Amino acid sequence: MKNRISFIFLNPLFVILVIMIGIFFIATQGIFGDTIKIGIIADRTGPTVAVQGPIAMGIKTYFKYINEHGGVNGRKLKWIHEDDRYTISKQIAAFKKLMYRDKVFTMFLGGSTGGLLALQPMIKKDKITVLGAPTSDIMVIPPRKYYFTNGTSYEDEIKILFDYVYNKLKIKKPRIGLVRADTEHGKVGSRTANKMAKQRKTKLIEEVIVGPGAMDATSEALRFRVARIDYVLLHTTTGNGTAFVRSAKKVKFFPTYLGTKYAGAEDLVKLTGDASKNFHILNSFSRWYEDVPGVVEMKQIYEKHYPGKDRSGWYVQGWTSGIVIVEALKRTGKNLTSAGLIKGYESFKDVETKGLAGPITYGTGIRKGGDYVKLYKADVKNQRLKAITGWMRPSLPDRNISNSSPQRRR
User: What percentage of the chain has pLDDT greater than the value 90?
Assistant: First the structure.
């Protein structure tokens, strides 16, 4: 009997079978019959909920729409949303829960730049393919195998804003000040802004820190007024961007504002009124009220679930992110594996979103899906952001392209 048991366990066919079963269970984490489990990490109760809340809602509503139309290759999507409160420790804890307890197949990661940097070793070790919202170049250059993002980088946005001042407005000696947080996101902005200023053979006049959740920035705004700053570069989240503009109004400081994508939205215009009349901001995603086919279609679907409620442009970013995740899953096919999902993403080539965003391309060395943005200016009367350019990119800062005829950088 003992010899028979030994024969079974030493039989090469038996060993191969055991290995194959093990590989099968590892490769199909998050796939349960006709269900695909997807994790979402996004701020629900912290200082960036005004941005990340609508992003998460946009993703979930798109997933609901997909489920109502049969799912992805015959499988329904099940999502689990974890709140990280925009803190690195909670973001790591949320990732571990989704990965090891909930056993999700893939994730959308909001959170912070610092948190996502901290997660990279775990993402690589666990071989889970993710789509992230923070878009610093440090996340994608050099490319990380399992990490993808959509929307241009903070570095590119700051480059475009400098080009706008020097090339479009033709300002020879602008007095530029930077507002940022003391976070990894803020440090990226500081490094890039100082680099861009140096390339123009000048320097930033002032640089101040306003943290996430700050309600007042009067002393910082006063410093800028005393320094006679003409152009304020806001590399912030919406809350502290709003705090600075409101505080500047109190000290009668009315510069031209130039914001990177998370620095503000319609709420900033509503809360700051005429203080935002010279507020400009870049974004990789269209606004809720823009008359482009993708937004019109999105709103028609949204109205069926939540009639009569308008949303900010952050919802558009979430909806578009949902489209990207679903399209990658579709391209992977029914045999879902993390390696297959990577190939699904890498097969994107000038994928159109009907104007929700610029064309999206990934590849073996491309993890940033697009580098297109539009520049918006505050419309104080209508409490909106009005596009003043079409889609443009950092290498071609003054050249607009249409939604119907995308051009790729050669």
Answer: 79
